[in-house]
User: What shape does this take?
Amino acid sequence: MRRILATMKIALRALRRNKLRTLLTMLGMIIGVGAVIAMVGIGNGAKTQIENQIASMGQNVVLVFSGSFNRGGVHSGWGGAGTLSIDDADAIQREVPGVTVVSPEVRNGTQIAAGNQNWSTQILGESADYFTLRQWPVVTGAGFSEQDVRSANKVAVLGQTIVDQLFPGEDPIGQIVRIKSAPFKVVGVLRAKGMSMMGSDQDDVIVIPYTAAMKRLFGMTTLRTINVQAASPKLLTSVQEQITGLLRQRHRIGVGRDDDFTVRTQQEIAETATQQSETMTYLLAAIAAVSLIVGGIGIMNIMLVSVTERTREIGIRMAVGARGNDILLQFLTEAVTLSIIGGLIGIGIGVAASKGIEAWKNWPVATPMLWILASFIVSAAVGIFFGFYPARKASRLDPIDALRYE
Assistant: This one.
């Protein structure tokens, strides 16, 4: 043990003698580890943000989209055809066990106006239960009622962006918003949600009764989406399967024929979104990890140069009793020390860069401790892998030839 400690002290003393070269050698590891930590932090932050936004859409939600079928060789995607009806939504509410809330949905973009202000926005036609299903509270005023839906009353709940654009500095409750020239009374204002992951403004929306949207605005007779809420997460799969069976029966879809609708649970949508985020995170981390290899090659190069420069020193150590294993340990210690210190500095820089981006761009960053630990282990492994060959070469030098070396 005493010999090992003495050998390690010699190795550290050799690194201190050439501080600039030591720092430049570590630079590759610092950049590599720092880039990996920063990229993983940003990627995981994006994943967390996606999960939070999907969760904000409501709990235990099943989405039924019209379309997604093949007919005459033509394939239509989600919402590509109006194949859902209000009767379908009523049947789901009535006949599928485990369903607590159903909200038929129509949507369309149009121009709105209030006083001398106007704005182009998205109109959502929903049921009175939509705000509960989506966990989107009305912070001022109130949502519309089931009676408003049955009577197709011209009432509206505004997103915060609409309030800012049409009623700056005013109380919008009780005022009139004209949607395609039809006057709608403002009864409530939704809590602000901010931007989505795709960069769209979630508050740039007006929610009105779906009956009013279909009859008084857009002349629609079919739905594009039906929002369904299950009683618990355990019932999601069962509710999804029962909705599929019920709609196939109602739409008279025969065995072997494609559905003219698509049923997706919130979990499936979340998994798809986060899977894409994870793939991007791993891709960015893999690109950044190339710097680790470059850093390892730099360590090997410098260690080979160091062995050549210190050949006579190696010969003297062997002449006074150092064994090949002592020389191997010395140079391996130097390589691993360079790699580990570089890795630790890189981890610090990576975490600091992540926090800087979080503060600068208001982008959530999450760096798992597992990745930090993995980066430390990998940096040590890189030092061992790329430092072994130069250390082995040094340990196999012939003492006599080494002493003669000029």
